[in-house]
Amino acid sequence: MEAGQADDTPEALKKSPALRALYNNLKQHGAKLEGLEGVAEERAAYIVPGDPVLYLALRIDATVKQVRPDDWRGVEPRERVIKHALFRILQDVAEVERIFLIIKAQKEY
């Protein structure tokens, strides 16, 4: 409990509070996972056997880290860059807005 994670927390989540926040939120809200099953090449890059929510969280985390502009918080055009990248993954405007708020709250990004 002191470490901030349960004993059954996947190893990939132990190193990143931001990734853990994404994973927990996606899992709690029943992430939309349609279309992710057939992405074998990408899935292999993230090494997530049997946990499509973890795969999605890792994919979002990596994408945000890759596309985020410097000093993006509070600058609408820069925030839109991240939202556009999220939309390419999630394909749902409401879900992008919901996940973006989680991302914006994480200092890691």
Account of the protein in words:
By secondary structure, this protein is mostly helical. It has a domain of 61 residues. It has five helices and no strands. Helix 1 packs across helix 3, helix 3 runs antiparallel to helix 4 and helix 4 packs across helix 5.
In short:
This protein has 109 residues and is an all-alpha fold.
Q: What descriptors fit this protein?
A:
5 helices, 109 residues, single chain, mainly alpha
Tell the overall outline.
globular
Helix content: 55-70%
Order of helices and strands: HHHHH
How far is it from the N-terminal to the C-terminal residue, by CA?
Answer: 25 Å
Mean pLDDT: 82
The biggest beta sheet reads: none
Report the uncertain regions: 35-47
Number of strands: 0
Q: What share of the residues does DSSP label as strand, in percent?
A: under 5%
Radius of gyration: 14 Å
Oligomer: single chain
Structural class determined from secondary elements: mainly alpha
Note the total helix count.
Answer: 5
Annotate the secondary structure layout.
Elements: H1 17-28, H2 40-46, H3 52-67, H4 76-90, H5 93-104
